[in-house]
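Same chain as my last thread, 366 residues:
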Amino acid sequence: MVARNNLENVCNEIKATERQYGEYLNQLITDFKSPASKILGNLDIDKLFSNVVQLRKLNLEFQADLKSEINIGELYKRFGPYYLIYSTYCNNYSEALTTLERLIKTHKSFRKLVKSSESNSTQTLASLLIMPIQRIPRHILLLKEFQKQLPKNDKGATVCLEGLHRMEVVAREVNEMIRSKENSERLCTIQRTLVMPEEMVLFETRRVLLLEDDLLKLCKGNKFKKRRFYLFNDCLVYARPSGGMTKRDSWQFRERLIVTSVERNPDIEVLQCISISTMKCFRIHCESRSILVSCADDKVDIWVAELEQYLHKPKVPIIQEPECSESVFETLSPYYPIIMLLIAVQLCSKSPFLDFISLTVVFFIS
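reply #2:
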C-alpha cells in the first residue's frame, strides 16, 4: 500500500512539474517573445528565444498523453526521440544570454519591456530562459524515482527501464551536440587568430580541441619564451606571439607535431643550464623531435594527464577532401569525338534500340 502511494506521488509530481513547466514556457512566449517581436528584428528574436514555440507544442502534447497514459515508461519511450529538438535550444542558450545582456544595455524599449513584464511575474526573463536547459535532466530524475517505486515483478518495470534509457540517450546526444557546436566555434576562432600557411586548415571534420594554454617553451640559448599550445585529438600545435603590424591577440603558427610520449621529470643536465623557476616542467616527445615546456605545478599536472590520456586513445583519422590528380574532363578527353557522335545519334534517332546502344557506350566510357 505504501509503495502504491509512493508511485502515485511520483506520477502526480511528473504531471504537476510538466504542467508548471508548460505555464512558464507560455509565459516566456506571451509576456516576452510576442511583445518583443514588435520592437526587435527577427535575428535578435531567434537568438533570444530560439525554438521555444516548438518546445511548448511538445509540452502540450506530452501533457495531453500524460493525463490518459497509465504506463509512464511507455510514454517516455514514445516521446523520447522528440526531445532531440531541445538540442537546438541548448545550442543557442549561450548566445541567448549574450544577446539579452547586449539588448538590456543598448535597447531602451526592450529594457523597458523586460522590466515591465518581470514586475508582473514571479520569474525573470533569465530564469525563464534557463528552464528548458534543466528540463531533460529533470525528466530523467523523475523517471528514475518512478522506476525505483515500481514493484520488481511489475509488468511495466521493463518498459519503464526502456523509457529511462531512451531519455538518457537523448540527454547524451543533446550534450554531444552542444560540445560539438562549442568545439566548432572555438576552432573557427583559433583559425582567425592564428597566422598560418594558407594550405593548413585547423577546422577539419572530427578534429576536437582538447586543451589550450600559454606555456613557456625552451628555445635557443636556453631561454624560455611564451608560446601558445593547442592540443587536438590528432596533433599538437604551438605558436608564438605575432609581432609587427599584425592584429592584436594574434599568434604566429610555428609547428604541428605528432606526440609520441610525455616525460614529467626531464633529464637533470638540461635543467642545470637554466634557472630554478624552470624546475616545474615536462618534456613532450614527438615524431620529429622533443620540446621542453615550463609552467606552474597545477598546469603540469593538467597537461601531463591530458597528454597521457591523448596517447592512450586511438587516433581518429581526420577526414579531408580527397585530392584529384586530374579532372573528369581530362580523363575523358581522348573519347570526346566518340561521345559527341553517340550523343548526336541519340538526339537525332527515333529508334529506341539506337538510343539504348549509344547511351550504353557513353556510360561505359565515362
